[in-house]
Write a structure and sequence with these properties.
Blueprint: H1 6-15, H2 23-35, H3 38-54, E1 56-57, E2 64-65, H4 71-74, E3 79-86, H5 89-96, E4 103-107, H6 126-133, E5 142-145, H7 151-164, E6 170-173, H8 189-197
Parallel strand pairs: 3-4, 3-5, 5-6
Antiparallel strand pairs: 1-2
Helix pairs in contact: 1-2
Keywords: DNA damage, DNA recombination, DNA repair, Metal-binding, Zinc, Zinc-finger
GO molecular function: DNA binding; zinc ion binding
Family: Belongs to the RecR family.
Length: about 200
């Protein structure tokens, strides 16, 4: 791809490093930025630099935050007896968007994956144990394992269950099954099988 400017080429190469963006899309975005007022482009650049340099991890749950404690951990309106364990911040956002959960979170920062060289020590598991062990902390009654239904997710959940057995708390996992509005004939065998095993009673 020929570029009329080395500066444009450099910008396109950097934008193309973002996930899901190829060279053509990157070029389109860069040319769009050139059409905008310089102040708008400057504002975008400053916000990205500020985000990268100032966003940190919550010291309690490891969620992304502007402060030492994220807004969820700092809130007095949350149910502190519940901890929902998730893989990363995207899962926190997804669950929060349902408006159905009012407890706390614990972000692992990944899942166990021997293929990628990620083991238990690479995750925020020990800090979860410390939260449950802390006598001056929240009185945790239940830990919800909200991990993806993959082999790696199930491996991580199994490992966590073994680690958490020492505590007198309820350990649960999110329900898995046929999605609302889905047809049974299009559901895969594993999902359909889990739906049968995890069936609920009509009230």
């Amino acid at each position: 791809m020929e570029f009329p400017s080395k500066l444009i080429e450099d910008a396109v190469n950097e934008v193309a490093k973002l996930p899901g963006i190829g060279k053509k899309t990157a070029l389109r975005l860069v040319l769009h930025l050139l059409k905008r007022d310089e102040e708008q482009t400057q504002s975008l650049a400053e916000s990205l630099v500020a985000m990268r340099s100032k966003v940190k991890h919550c010291r309690k749950c490891h969620n992304l935050s502007d402060n030492d404690l994220c807004s969820i951990c700092a809130s007095h309106k949350r149910d502190r007896s519940l901890i929902c364990v998730v893989e990363d911040t995207r899962d926190v956002l997804a669950i929060e968007n349902t408006a159905q959960y009012k407890g706390m979170y614990h972000v692992l920062g990944g899942i166990i994956s021997p293929v990628e060289g990620i083991g238990p020590s690479d995750l925020h598991i020990e800090s979860l144990i410390e939260r449950l062990r802390d006598p001056d902390g929240d009185a945790i009654k239940e830990v919800i394992l909200a991990l993806s239904p993959t082999m790696e997710g199930d491996t991580t959940a199994f490992y966590l269950q073994k680690k958490l057995r020492m505590f007198s708390i309820k350990i649960s996992t999110i329900a898995r099954g046929v999605p609302i509005g889905g047809d049974l004939e299009y559901a895969d065998e594993v999902t359909l099988g889990r739906s049968i095993l995890s069936r609920i009673s009509y009230e």
